[in-house]
Design brief:
9-stranded mixed sheet, alpha+beta, Glutaredoxin
């Protein structure tokens, strides 16, 4: 009797053709904390830090719905210097602000809580995050680390590996922050192309999971416009209106500047059958799918 083949959620998702568009978690604020040791399966929450410090950071992050991620350079480079931390904001008007600092002792992370209440500074380059959290999900390591290596070789100052960003089945996942753009189903060659295009302000529909300042049906609508009419800048489109009836949405996607073409996109949601969606989670669950039925250019 042969042993059963090991289950990999990303392999299964690709074989099924799971839809990417509309799967980016909502969020406009990120906390990044460099941690060069092993990452616990639950990320920052599992670090051996004084509980009061973790509670302080979590409460400040929760107040602004920030996601807290551990980061490290690819290859776990040995360094005697302090770790870095960052608070990154994507403002409602599209402005990007960041604040960076360093830490040696856990109590230094109190600066993170202070930074979450401050606006930050404009002008920093974006940060490219590659999920490589193997203890959380095997696919994040198997697929994420080659992507982390390829991107780090190309843009060593911009790229960090990070803990769980959501959507293990879409590994390798790359998130550009504070732009707030999720990409998935990447490998080393495609990741270099996608990030190169992104940094040139050309977002393509291929590999796009969504913009994190939009909700899932809106993400799917923007992806449909990009797929039909070609790549565009991160802020080339805005959502003018969203209406819902049961499991259907009509979303008006308008180009920028004012007077650019606008589109009405019809989106229908449904749920998949029960599936094993992650490598670690044995329980089966269903996932929401946002299917674009029609894209109409407004006169």
């Amino acid at each position: 009797m042969t042993a059963a083949a090991r289950f990999f959620c990303a392999d299964s998702a690709r074989a099924r053709g799971d839809a990417l568009a509309g799967t980016a978690p909502y969020g406009t604020v990120w906390v990044l904390i460099e941690y060069r040791g092993g990452w616990p399966s639950n990320g920052f929450d599992g670090l051996p830090l004084e509980p009061g410090i973790k509670e302080l950071v979590f409460e400040a992050a929760r107040a602004v719905r920030a996601r807290v991620l551990l980061i490290r350079r690819h290859g776990r480079r040995v360094s005697d210097g302090p770790g870095r931390w960052a608070v990154l904001h994507h403002e409602a008007d599209g402005a990007h602000r960041q604040r960076w600092g360093t830490w040696r002792r856990p109590e230094d992370l109190a600066q993170v809580a202070e930074a979450l209440g401050a606006p930050g500074e404009p002008g920093h380059p974006p940060v490219v995050l590659v999920c490589a959290h193997g203890l959380h999900d095997a696919c994040c390591a198997v697929r994420g680390r080659p992507v982390g290596r390829a991107l780090s070789e190309r843009w060593p100052g911009l790229v960090w590996e990070c803990t769980h960003v959501g959507g293990d089945r879409f590994a390798a996942n790359v998130v550009v922050v504070p732009d707030g753009v999720y990409y998935g189903n990447l490998d080393a060659p495609s990741s270099v192309t996608v990030v190169e295009e992104h940094l040139a302000d050309r977002v393509h529909a291929d590999h796009l999971r969504g913009y994190t300042d939009l909700f899932p049906p809106q993400q799917a609508a923007v992806a449909a416009v990009l797929r039909r009419f070609g790549p565009a800048g991160r802020h080339a489109y805005t959502i003018e209106a969203t209406s819902r009836s049961a499991d259907r949405w009509r979303i008006r996607v308008a180009g920028r500047p004012s007077g650019a073409p606008a589109f009405d996109v019809d989106v229908r949601s449904h749920r998949t059958p029960l599936l094993q969606l992650t490598c670690r989670g044995r329980a089966r669950s269903s996932a929401a799918v946002y299917e674009v039925e029609r894209t109409l250019r407004r006169p």
